[in-house]
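Title: [Solved] FecR domain-containing protein 3D structure

Original question kept below for reference.
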Amino acid sequence: ALSSAAIFLFAVTLGYYSILNHQSSLRVERGGVEISQVEGEAYLTSSDPKDKILLKPGVRIQEGQKVITGSKAILNLKVSDGIVVRVLSDSEVSFRVIDLSTHYKIGIDLEKGELLAHIRKNLKKEEFVVRSENINAEVRGTSFSFQNVPKEGTRVQVLEGRVAISARSES
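Solution (posted by the thread starter after getting help):
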């Protein structure tokens, strides 16, 4: 009877361990953009929308991944020492480019919702571009709000500094 209980306990433990190790095919790695604060529910997804991770501080977003915030969520991201981004509620943000090698190159597609960004001045080698379906905003040393509302369009509000706005080409 004791060996049956031990075998059962071993099987349950092995099954639980297997579930923990196979939770998701999404990779949470070092590098990338770090989640510094989460209020409400926000998720990280990849190309398969069913494959998602509930975000918490310390998780890092990698190139090609997407963040989705819930109806009462706010998500703070630390890109570098000089770049901070806040993703507001009901937003979908894809990280098209994250290159943190010799200089920072960040490309974000705001599919819907709103984000606020603060980029410290004098980051000459850094490239920070936010796109919607119809415009690009290229930023250096500024604070701004970028809002994409389906069927209403895109709004950019400069809070400090300058933002270069251009019509988006297909690239």
